[in-house]
Amino acid sequence: MRWKIFAGLVLIVVIACLAISVGAFRRSTVAPDLEAQLTPERMAELAPRGRELALAGDCFGCHSKAEGPIGAGGQPIGTPFGTIYSSNITPDMAHGIGGMSRLEFHRVIRDGIGRDGQNLYPAMPYMFTQITTPEDIDALYAYLMTLPPVNMEPPANTGIFQFPVRWGMNFWALLNFPERHAPNDPSRGEAWNRGAYLVEGLGHCGACHTPMNFMMGYEFDRSLQGAVIEGLEAPPLTSAALTSRGFDVGTLTDFLATGIAPQGTSFGGMHTVTHFSTSAMERKDVEAIATYLLTGPDGKVPPPAPPPAPLPVASGELAPGRVTYVSVCSGCHGVDGEGIPNVAPAMRGNSTLALADPLNLLSVIVNGVPTQSFTGNQRMYAMPPFAHRLEDEDIAELASWLRAEWGGQATPVTAAQVSAIERAVD
């Protein structure tokens, strides 16, 4: 028994030493020329550029609470292992980044190393932001230092994150933090390359739209092929997937810039992105993102697929779903699925209905959607939850009819799929 205890202690020591060694290696990669601070004049010159980059990165979507001051942190980020609260990124000296040097800020963005030399948790998407150029990191630093300082300390993390487990992130990073570089193809033009830089870097679109492995590391060989996050599907963002849902560069740009397009409105986590990030960005950057996402492997943007025709499914099988739609849905969404501006989105051509997995559609029907504001004084009224107004079988029949009528999906939805949806209602 004693030798087992001794062997266990030796193993712990070896693991700790390896972790420290890996951490030391990761902390030794910063260019020494970043030791010099930027002059006030250079900071002022870079700040406007940094604002656009902060918007592209949706920094304030994570680092601001809805009811709190901008950049003060405290936004809860749920994980299977506990809750992480976002940090204060205002230039407050006590709880923010006011005392963070230029060098330390570069380490955060590029290496995922905090100012105290500790590993950051991957809630900070440094796997993506590492490709940001030094000049742009400087610009982001300069802009954040212009924010009003907020003397506010975020709550303490919960679950496993309240224990000293950051050293273990050295091993996690060794296995899940590959060296990445910004895509660059001069033959594809300025817009494509700018979009690639934003999508794959600060924009970190893959943080939601890329599958994860069992360690919650990103499977970059399946980049942008879709994932499930916070109970909703973040659908694939490949060129083929987007064009199959009817998007072209114009409509995808409009969707990102306003949150509204013929394919539907943004909701869930995507509404946070369009509301706080892409709708406030320069139009040319949003169009560059759309251009990159929609460009196929051959370097061309394929034409969007036409809206799917109603599927010839036996009327007896789907008639109950149509009756339910006319009874409880058509007052807002229209008898013919045309929708009502500033009230409810159209069902005809809605890309949510065209997804192979009915998860998002069922979640919206079961749990509803709060009132949403979009750019240009546009809004959509709250959709009430139907979890306690309709039986699971009724919801399944409704979803099956919607998907067949306007989504081109013939696979029936089952009551079991409905009951599996988390019901966030009383």
Concise synopsis of the structure shown:
β3 (227-229) and β4 form a beta hairpin. This protein has 426 residues and is mainly alpha-helical. 43% of the residues lie in helices and 5% in strands.
Any idea what the shape is?
Answer: globular
The number of helical segments is 19
Unreliable spans are 2-7, 9-17
The domain count comes to: 3
Helicity level, as a percent range?
40-55%
Radius of gyration: 24 Å
Structural class comes to mainly alpha
How far apart the termini lie comes to 53 Å
Sheet with most strands: strand arrangement:
1-2
The biggest beta sheet reads: 2 strands, antiparallel
Order of helices and strands: HHHEEHHHHHHEEHHEEHHHHHHEEHH
Provide mean pLDDT, rounded. 89
Number of strands: 8
Percentage of residues in DSSP E strands? 5-15%
What does the model show?
The structure is a single chain. This protein has helices spanning 2-26, 40-56, 59-63, 102-111, 126-129, 134-144, 169-176, 189-200, 206-209, 239-244, 249-258, 269-276, 283-294, 315-328, 330-333, 351-354, 359-367, 392-406, 415-419, and strands at residues 76-79, 82-85, 227-229, 232-234, 260-261, 264-265, 372-373, 379-380. It has 426 residues and is mainly alpha-helical. It has a two-stranded antiparallel ribbon. Helix 1 (2-26) crosses helix 7, helix 4 (102-111) crosses helix 6 and helix 11 (249-258) crosses helix 13 (283-294). The model is unreliable at 2-7 and 9-17 (pLDDT under 50).
